[in-house]
Backbone:
């Protein structure tokens, strides 16, 4: 089946006819394996932050409510926080979402750094 397309290359229009080839119409078509071998390299390189080490959640742990990248940390170890205080900001798909303290306490440990990739449910900060 032939299909007609109009394409524009560098400001110049071209009319292009494309014919779909099937095994029935062209039995000598080469067969291609759709899987990519593990040793092959991709022509496009995308930098994806590695996820930070996952810690077990405890009573005072503040966890990520979504997967994303840590865009900002607004507390320091030993700092006192109140329930509702913004402690971290996560970014995913160009959208920044604040993580707020779910209870009052003192920051016992910060488990992530700015730029770390995190998964939903991952412990970000432990409160004592």
Residues:
């Amino acid at each position: 089946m032939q299909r007609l397309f109009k394409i524009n290359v560098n400001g110049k229009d071209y009319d292009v006819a494309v014919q779909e080839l099937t095994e029935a119409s062209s039995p000598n078509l080469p067969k291609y394996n759709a899987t990519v071998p593990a040793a092959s390299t991709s022509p496009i390189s995308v930098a994806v932050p590695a996820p930070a080490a996952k810690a077990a959640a405890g009573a005072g742990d503040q966890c990520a409510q979504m997967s994303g990248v840590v865009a900002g940390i607004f507390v320091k170890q030993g700092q006192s926080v109140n329930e509702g205080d913004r402690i971290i900001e996560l970014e995913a798909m160009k959208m920044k979402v604040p993580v707020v303290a779910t209870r009052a306490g003192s920051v016992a440990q910060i488990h992530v750094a700015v730029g770390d990739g995190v998964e939903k449910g991952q412990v970000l900060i432990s409160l004592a």
The two ends are 69 Å apart (CA to CA). The domain at 61-127 is CATH 2.40.50.100 (OB fold (Dihydrolipoamide Acetyltransferase, E2P)). The chain has a mean pLDDT of 81.
